[in-house]
Amino acid sequence: MNYSWNWGVLFEQTGIGSELYIHWMITGLGWLLLIGSIAWAIAMVIGTIFGIMRTLPNKTARAIGTTYVTFFRNIPLLVQLFFWFYIAPGWLTPSIQEWWYKDLSPNTSAMLSASIGLGLFTAARIVEQVRTGIESLPKGQINAAYALGFSIPQAYKEVLLPQAFRIILPPLSSELTNCFKNASVASLVGVMELISQTKTISEYTQNSLEIYTYATIIYLVFNLSLIAIMGLIERKLRVPGLIAGSQK
């Protein structure tokens, strides 16, 4: 194999002004972080709400939560992203459509569509984790809260959720890293995130091995950093006697 290695390719000129290829990689990483962060915020809010609904005594609330999980977990992520990018904007009011198509840049509108789709997809997984965390608590917890005069919202806010989230921190760590890794699929709806920029640089330079190696290292370092941070939070918040707690 007669291949000319060039590990300094990221520091070469792109031919567009004074930009270097590393600037494209940094821009792609920025879009990736933005998509992942927005999607994670959506997932945590919606996942928590529907996770609570799945544990309420009200049958209608439980049915709504179950329907959400069943729907979003059984449709491929890519299909959902295509829906939010190609179909959903057509359902907006004319004024919002004008803003969406004319005022927003194509990359920004694609980023928002990808963030919404990824957030709702990830939320369906968090619903189950929140439900599992709440149901793993002893029944005496909720009964004691009612005995103290707490309403249902107060019981969840003050008693159940603080303990449940400590229990589910390890699986939440996995979902967090998955959320940012799945953000790479946004390149298929036009977002110039890290994978898309990597492909572009590879085509421009023909140094595919080096470029994809750098992208792999970026993903690896970023996700390992997330895992380390979540591990630190888990150790700080663990409760002795619970699933995620120390037995000491």
Automatic annotation (TrEMBL):
What InterPro entries does the database record attribute to this sequence? Answer: AA_ABC_transptr_permease_3TM, ArtM/GltK/GlnP/TcyL/YhdX-like, MetI-like, MetI-like_sf
Give me the Gene Ontology terms describing cellular component. ATP-binding cassette (ABC) transporter complex
Q: Which CDD domains match?
A: TM_PBP2 (cd06261)
The source's superkingdom equals: Bacteria
Q: Does the keyword Transmembrane helix apply?
A: yes
Know the name of this protein?
Answer: L-glutamate ABC transporter membrane protein / L-aspartate ABC transporter membrane protein
Give this protein's Gene Ontology molecular function annotations: transmembrane transporter activity
| Residue ranges constituting the ABC transmembrane type-1 domain according to the UniProt record | 29-230
Entry's localization field:
Cell inner membrane; Cell membrane
Give the organism, scientific name: Psychrobacter arcticus (strain DSM 17307 / VKM B-2377 / 273-4)
Its membrane topology is listed as: Multi-pass membrane protein
Chief localization: membrane
Transmembrane intervals: 20-53, 65-88, 108-127, 211-233
Pfam families, per database record? BPD_transp_1
Keyword Nucleus found: no
For this UniProt record, the keywords arranged alphabetically read as follows: Amino-acid transport, Cell membrane, Membrane, Transmembrane, Transmembrane helix, Transport
State any GO BP term from the record.
amino acid transport
Per the record, the similarity remark reads: Belongs to the binding-protein-dependent transport system permease family. HisMQ subfamily.
